[in-house]
């Protein structure tokens, strides 16, 4: 099913009598029923005001189309959404609705915020086929409950997004990346924390275990980037040799898309934790390969098929999510970190209210 | 302001409820004498008053849990209260309610610079969160004008903003986790020092839910390293439209100032008399602030000044000292107090698309003449969050009603140009009945469904946010069930 309008989608949902998989471009690798509702027919930028830093687009609009429109005005999606195709081996065209539904954010998340922080408004069709709107197109809005946040990251389980409005930001004039050679991950995370604690506005902070180096990105006007690079070198000088990375754009896209794991055999998990816990957690997991982003707060791990990563970690504060594994492993271990009884009851209650017939991506989020 | 009829059964059972509360709280934490409960009869929206049945001041999450469990069992509405600084009547009691004041819970529980967060009890004031970390050059970013007094609990309930959120975001963008007590007394932990939990974003919907989903007793907040420095520039224009264009051009240039504040003539004069900041005498004043090292500030301000010059400002002045910057901000942050010296006022808080600024200001000016009430405008121009201050005389019969009607017209205008009723103050009691202008019944139903899940009996902070007719069926169902 591929509706061309919001009204058509609403009619389709009202008439459904079996569960469906909700897909934008289908690049984020979710399994589900054979019946599919694709939003790619709902496409196009409906409003873009560069002077107000606002863009409104239909959910099925390709991310590339939005990024091109923004680039023409020197602006960007500051949350730097990841492209999952390489990691998951999927084809298709990533859509803005998919990015929002999955709350996909990249390395700049630690400084600028997540996708959900840039989402100003949504329109969606709920499980009864009703068209609902929440939020709007202005940057500050506390009018009623914030269902905008609730829809972001709900993976289509509460409703099918039809339109999203986003805050956009200027694209920085210049960018520089420092690389610090460190003896181990502990010092690596220490370097990332030291940089993030400084006043020099680091916009990305990753640790690459393959080359044992901490990576820090600075962005802004070129004079400012040059100044902050020098200052940051001073902050980091005691922790290892500091060098400037040539062609940092390619490096950060590779970190954003976890390119090091592309084509590699095994399951992929992402672990979200307090950054300083990262070295200890990584030691417990003993992954085949690892990549640390978000100052150490996000660990990507590549594991032998079927490994129970949560069991290896034991008790910890945070959550571990399966990103790539066979359906049997996902069913056995659960895609998401198990919720406490209180939280599980709330999320179940919300799902029953938004999609009482259990039509959208059943079982995906529990 | 229309309120639901107090539940006579609850009022009749006051003594029983009081005894049960005294059983779980120290005596000095339960306020029941009418002479004392009167202290809680209103918040900063003083036009509406109603003493609560009882008030309690718990000191621990366990005590909050006990109070809510008892009230839930007894069917008693609960109105949570931070510091009572809401301009929207968010903490206005009902006659049959228990006020749950969180002010005694004001401890710092954990400070972690390496991971850049602070965990506090939510009765702590906004400014004292920064106070706990500023010796180490950190700060908590959201800065509502009431930050000296307002509590984090209220900031979370209303998703408070402030002057500097153009760069740093509002409360929801700086809130990492909460400990929250549900109406049935159960306690849930949501989020924490890590980012982006895997399941539904409950934290996102709790923030800004106006105390209607649960009582947040602890919060994990993002803290940031202070910038090396900051400096404002003042720009005066003799035309609102030109000032609006200047704002848009600054934003389009790629500079992201931490704040762009706008004041019109009436506010400029009131604030100048109050703070002596050297504000120019003009139609529209912009305060634009940038951050960074001295060199970065010089560079950014040079760019901004170059843009401003293209719009023929009548005044253009960079702050020359920290003292002068402080005065400039004191003037802006005192705007509400300064206007209050002129007369009683009602402060609105609608947001509009920045491009509609000139049109909306012109319409407000016209309506001001029609209603015969003066309006001062002071607002966060970078994000379109307006604060029209309507002056009226509370002692003059009919003036409040006229002011309310004028205010409603302004807010409807904000919605009609593509904006919203409230950018940072919340709906509370004040804008409750205007919600239907912004949202269709189906949109309100979706929001009310969330409350059904968190607070099935609809006891928390009743008669706020949703129009009374929209929530009537649910209130009746609750009373019928008892």
Indicate the mean pLDDT of chain A.
96
Termini separation of chain B? 27 Å
Mean pLDDT of chain B: 94
Structural class by helix and strand composition of chain B: alpha+beta
Main pleated-sheet profile of chain B: 7 strands, antiparallel
What does the overall shape of chain B look like? globular
How is the biggest beta sheet of chain A arranged? 5 strands, antiparallel
CATH topology of one domain in chain B: Uridine Diphospho-n-acetylenolpyruvylglucosamine Reductase, domain 3
Widest sheet of chain A: strand order? 3-4-8-6-7
In the CATH scheme, the class of one domain in chain B would be: Alpha Beta
First-residue to last-residue Cα separation of chain A: 24 Å
Helix proportion of chain A: 25-40%
Describe the structure.
With 366 residues, chain A is α+β, with helices and mostly antiparallel strands. Chain A folds into 3 domains: 6-170, Uridine Diphospho-n-acetylenolpyruvylglucosamine Reductase, domain 3, CATH 3.30.465.10; 174-256, Alpha-Beta Plaits; 259-333, 2-Layer Sandwich (Alpha-Beta Plaits). Helix content of chain A is 31%, strand content 25%. Chain A has a 5-stranded antiparallel β-sheet. In chain A, β11 and β12 (213-220) form a beta hairpin. Chain A is globular and about 65 Å long. The mean pLDDT of chain A is 96. Chain B has 482 residues and is an alpha+beta fold. Among the domains of chain B are: 108-225, Uridine Diphospho-n-acetylenolpyruvylglucosamine Reductase, domain 3 (2-Layer Sandwich); 230-335, Alpha-Beta Plaits (2-Layer Sandwich), CATH 3.30.70.2190; 343-436, 2-Layer Sandwich (Alpha-Beta Plaits). Helix content of chain B is 39%, strand content 18%. Chain B has helices spanning 8-12, 14-24, 34-37, 61-74, 126-133, 152-158, 165-168, 171-174, 202-206, 240-252, 265-275, 294-309, 322-333, 335-342, 357-371, 399-416, 435-438, 441-454, 468-481; strands spanning 30-31, 54-56, 78-81, 98-101, 108-112, 117-121, 138-139, 175-181, 187-191, 215-222, 224-225, 230-237, 259-264, 284-291, 315-318, 344-347, 375-380, 388-392. Chain B has a 7-stranded antiparallel β-sheet with strand order 15-12-14-13-17-18-16, sandwiched between helices. Chain B has a 5-stranded antiparallel β-sheet with strand order 5-6-10-8-9. In chain B, β8 and β9 (187-191) form a beta hairpin. In chain B, α10 packs antiparallel against α15 (357-371), α11 packs across α13 (322-333) and α11 (265-275) crosses α14 (335-342). The longest helix of chain B is centred in the last third of the chain and has 18 residues, at 399-416. Classes of the chains: A alpha+beta (366), B alpha+beta (482).
């Amino acid at each position: 099913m591929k509706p061309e309008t919001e009204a058509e989608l609403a009619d389709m949902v009202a008439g459904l009598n079996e569960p469906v998989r909700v897909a934008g471009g289908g690049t984020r690798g979710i399994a589900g029923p054979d019946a599919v509702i694709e939003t790619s027919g709902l496409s196009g930028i409906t409003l873009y005001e560069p002077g107000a830093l606002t863009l409104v687009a239909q959910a099925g609009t390709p991310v590339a189309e939005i990024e091109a429109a923004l680039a023409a005005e020197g602006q960007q999606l500051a949350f730097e959404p990841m492209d999952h195709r390489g990691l998951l081996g999927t084809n298709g065209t990533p859509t803005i609705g998919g990015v929002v539904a999955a709350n996909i954010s990249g390395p700049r998340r630690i400084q600028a915020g997540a996708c959900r922080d840039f989402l100003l408004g949504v329109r969606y069709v709920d499980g009864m086929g009703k068209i609902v709107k929440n939020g709007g197109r202005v940057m500050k809005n506390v009018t009623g409950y914030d269902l905008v946040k609730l829809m972001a990251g709900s993976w289509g389980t509460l409703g099918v997004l039809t339109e999203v409005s986003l805050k956009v930001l200027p694209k920085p004039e210049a960018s520089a990346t420092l690389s610090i050679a460190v003896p181990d991950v502990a010092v690596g995370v220490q370097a990332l924390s030291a940089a993030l604690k400084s006043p020099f506005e680091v916009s990305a902070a990753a640790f690459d275990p393959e080359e044992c180096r901490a990576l820090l990105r600075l962005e802004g006007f070129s004079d400012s980037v040059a100044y902050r690079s020098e200052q940051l070198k001073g902050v980091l000088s005691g922790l290892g040799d500091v060098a400037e990375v040539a062609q940092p754009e390619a490096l950060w896209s590779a970190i954003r898309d976890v390119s090091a794991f592309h084509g590699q055999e095994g399951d992929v998990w992402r672990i979200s934790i307090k950054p300083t816990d990262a070295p200890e957690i990584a030691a417990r997991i003993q992954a085949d390969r690892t990549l640390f982003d978000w100052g150490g707060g996000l660990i990507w791990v590549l594991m032998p098929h079927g490994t129970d990563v949560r069991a290896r970690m034991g008790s910890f504060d945070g959550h571990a999510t399966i990103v790539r594994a066979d359906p049997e492993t996902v069913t056995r271990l659960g895609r998401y970190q198990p919720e406490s009884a209180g939280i599980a009851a709330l999320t179940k209650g919300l799902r029953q209210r938004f999609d009482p017939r259990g039509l959208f991506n059943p079982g995906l989020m529990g | 302001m229309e309120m639901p009829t107090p539940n006579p059964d609850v009022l009749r059972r006051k003594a029983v409820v009081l005894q049960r509360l005294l059983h779980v709280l120290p005596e000095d934490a339960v306020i029941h004498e009418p002479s004392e409960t009167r202290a809680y009869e209103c918040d900063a929206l003083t036009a509406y008053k109603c003493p609560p049945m009882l008030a309690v001041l718990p000191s621990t999450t366990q005590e909050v849990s006990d109070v809510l469990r008892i009230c839930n069992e007894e069917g008693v509405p609960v109105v949570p209260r931070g510091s009572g600084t809401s301009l929207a009547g968010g903490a206005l009691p009902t006659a049959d309610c228990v006020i749950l004041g969180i002010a005694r819970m004001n401890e710092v529980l954990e400070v972690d610079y390496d991971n850049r967060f602070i965990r506090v009890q939510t009765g702590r004031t906004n400014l004292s969160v920064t106070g706990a970390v500023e010796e180490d050059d950190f700060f908590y970013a959201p800065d509502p004008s009431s930050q000296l007094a307002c509590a984090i609990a209220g900031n979370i309930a209303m998703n408070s903003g402030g002057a500097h959120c153009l760069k740093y975001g509002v409360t929801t963008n700086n809130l990492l986790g909460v400990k929250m007590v549900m109406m049935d007394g159960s306690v849930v932990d949501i989020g924490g020092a890590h980012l982006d939990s895997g399941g539904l974003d409950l934290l996102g919907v709790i923030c800004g839910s106006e105390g209607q989903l649960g009582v947040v007793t602890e919060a994990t907040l993002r803290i940031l390293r202070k910038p090396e420095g900051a400096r404002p520039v003042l720009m005066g224009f003799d035309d609102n439209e030109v000032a609006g264009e200047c704002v848009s051009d600054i934003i389009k240039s790629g500079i992201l100032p931490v704040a762009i504040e706008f004041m019109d003539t009436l506010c400029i004069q009131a604030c100048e008399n109050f703070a002596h900041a050297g504000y120019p005498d003009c139609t529209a004043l912009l305060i634009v602030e940038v951050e960074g090292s001295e060199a970065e500030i010089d560079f950014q301000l040079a760019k901004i000044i170059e843009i401003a010059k293209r719009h023929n400002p009548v005044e253009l002045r960079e702050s020359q000292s920290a003292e002068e910057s402080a005065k400039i901000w004191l003037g802006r942050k005192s705007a509400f107090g300064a206007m209050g010296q002129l007369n009683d006022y009602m402060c609105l808080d609608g947001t509009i698309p920045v491009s509609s600024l000139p049109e909306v200001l012109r319409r407000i000016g016209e309506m001001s003449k029609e209603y015969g009430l003066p309006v001062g405008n002071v607002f966060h121009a970078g994000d379109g969050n307006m604060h029209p201050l309507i002056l009226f005389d509370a002692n003059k019969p009919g003036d409040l009603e006229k002011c309310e009607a004028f205010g409603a017209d302004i807010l409807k205008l904000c919605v009609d140009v593509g904006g919203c009723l409230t950018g940072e103050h919340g709906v509370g009691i004040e804008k409750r009945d205007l919600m239907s202008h912004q949202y269709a019944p189906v949109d309100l139903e979706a929001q009310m469904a969330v409350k059904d899940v968190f607070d099935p009996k609809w006891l928390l902070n009743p008669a706020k946010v949703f129009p009374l007719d929209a929530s009537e069926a649910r209130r009746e169902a609750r009373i019928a069930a008892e």
